[in-house]
Design a protein that fits this description.
single chain, 400 residues, mainly beta, Immunoglobulin-like, 7-stranded mixed beta sheet, 34 strands, 42% strand, Ig-like_dom, Ig-like domain-containing protein, disulfide bond, Ig_sub2
Length: 400
């Protein structure tokens, strides 16, 4: 049977109308996630089922604001964008054509490009006991396909990657500074590293603050020493110490005590804790608060017993120095007149058989180490010659 040219032409036109636009193209992304971040690499693929065995040409429709950035010919089935930017966000469509086939435009594939993310690191707790552990979680904002890299460092060691850990959650039992980042894709894409999380290990040793001198009452102007003492077997460990109090907290130091002059500003609660010198992230709990209250001692008062300020020679009187609010303090005393300052420097002196030479002003002050109270007000004692009764002289004449 002879086929004429007009018949072939009509047949071709028939097939062209049948196939034109009836085959649908589909845009797929090579990665398994649709949200991308700046500087990632993405490959879009135009798939046409009926075109698998045909030599197809492809056409891409890009977002208007997009400038082509491709490592593949624009007529290939794959559209590769290396180092995507925000301007690549938008709808992508494709279609294919061959000698007798022209597909319709695919449905839009919407590409969303966001700024490079920072990983987020969270910890169940940041303080764990010796022998305990804690779960750390690394996450990247609402997107898929991530693996994770974990890092740890200390004040004495540089940052190092924790090997064989790519999971979102890891469990750690060491103190230190931890961070993480997300990775995905080929070539590998890295998020920004997370903020640091510090994990500390706590010892069960009890820590107490002790005061020297161990007086029940401290006065402003006195000098004291507070000592941080690690109990329950801490004697064999080399520790360093940190203080927390009304003054600016100290840095870690090898000295377990602080010495200062008591003032109004130094009154308040003091606490301390200690850590091993060879492990900056293994420490004790804070001690219980030690409350320091710097008092102001009252002005001393000189009293007489009996309370008469005028006596006669031969009588006995006791001079006493009293400091209100200073009870229980280990005072020594200074006196005026100076003749009373013979050791021991007691708070009272008994004058037996007073004479006129004992007349005069008496005052005192208290002393504790290098701290002195005010001088008391002066009390004046007058010793007069004894006045004898007239009958005494009559008896004396008779006896003579």
């Amino acid at each position: 049977m002879e086929v004429l040219f007009p018949d072939i032409l009509l047949l071709s036109i028939f097939f062209l109308f049948v196939c034109w636009g009836t085959v649908q193209a589909v845009v797929k992304v090579q990665q398994s996630w649709s949200q991308m971040f700046t500087d990632e690499t993405i490959t879009l693929k135009c798939e046409i089922k009926e075109g698998e065995n045909r030599e197809m040409k492809y056409e891409w429709k890009l977002p208007r604001k997009n400038t082509p950035n491709t490592n593949s010919p624009p007529t290939s089935s794959e559209y590769r964008i290396s180092r995507v930017s925000l301007s690549h966000s938008g709808d992508y469509r494709c279609r294919g054509s061959s000698d007798y086939l022209l597909t319709g435009w695919s449905d839009a594939f919407r590409l969303t490009v966001s700024y490079k993310p920072r990983a987020t690191l969270t910890a169940g707790t940041t303080i764990i006991p010796v022998g305990g552990s804690v779960t750390l979680t690394c996450s990247v904002q609402s997107s898929d396909g991530w693996k994770y890299e974990w890092f740890r460092r200390t004040q004495r060691t540089s940052e190092g990657q924790i090997r064989d850990q790519q999971n979102r959650d890891i469990r750690v039992s060491q103190g230190g500074i931890y961070s993480c980042r997300g990775t995905r894709g080929n070539p590998v894409y890295y998020t920004d590293i997370s903020d640091d999380v510090t994990i500390e290990i706590t010892f069960s040793n009890k820590v107490v603050v002790k005061q020297q001198p161990n007086w029940p009452q401290i006065f402003r102007g006195e000098t004291i020493t507070l000592t941080c003492e690690v109990q329950e077997g801490g004697e064999t460990t080399e520790w360093e110490y940190e203080w927390r109090g009304p003054r600016t907290p100290t840095q870690w130091t090898h000295n377990n005590d602080v010495t200062f002059r008591v003032s109004e500003s130094s009154s308040g609660d003091y606490m301390c804790k200690s850590r091993r010198r060879d492990d900056s992230y293994s420490s004790t709990e804070w001690s219980e608060a030690f409350t320091l209250s710097g008092s102001i001692p009252s002005k001393p008062t000189v009293t007489l017993q009996p309370s008469w300020t005028q006596i006669y020679s031969g009588e006995t009187v006791t001079v006493r120095c009293e400091i209100q609010g200073g009870e229980g303090a280990q005072w020594t005393y200074e006196w005026r007149a100076a003749k009373l300052n013979t050791p021991p420097t007691s708070n009272e002196h008994r004058i037996i058989r007073a004479t006129e030479s004992d007349s005069g002003g008496y005052s005192c002050r208290g002393r504790r180490d290098y701290f002195f109270s005010e001088w008391s007000d002066i009390i004046t004692l007058t010793v007069s010659c004894k006045i004898f009764h007239p009958d005494y002289f009559k008896l004396l004449i008779v006896l003579i």
